[in-house]
Amino acid sequence: MNEKIVRRKKRKKLKKKRFFPKKKSVEDLALQRMEYLFSLAKSVFKEEPNLARSYVEIGLKIGMKARVSVPVYWRRQICRKCKSFLVPGINLRIRLRSGPRSHVTYTCMECGGKKRFHI
Ligand SMILES: [Zn+2]
What we know:
Radius of gyration: 22 Å
Shape: elongated
Bound molecules: zinc ion
Structural class: alpha+beta
Order of helices and strands: HHHHEEE
Helix content: 40-55%
CATH topology: Single alpha-helices involved in coiled-coils or other helix-helix interfaces
CATH architecture: Up-down Bundle
């Protein structure tokens, strides 16, 4: 009996999920690729907005896979709802609100999604 119990315990120990720490290089690669894809989206947007959207989608997917957050600079130029690349004056409206709850509102003109940034 005792031996069986010991064996079971050993098996349990083996079955335990191992924790793999995130590798730095994976994050760096993901960031580089995201950066590249978003800059491509920016350059292509004027001629082919749909292609820009697909680039943004791929970039966001890479970020999710590597669990890397989108850099702040790019976060404000991407619509989280419809994944389109946002350019003010073309498909992005920016409005300011003053007062006690002052903020900036970004409205995507493709899907109507809104983002608010508190100041
Ligand atoms: Zn949108």
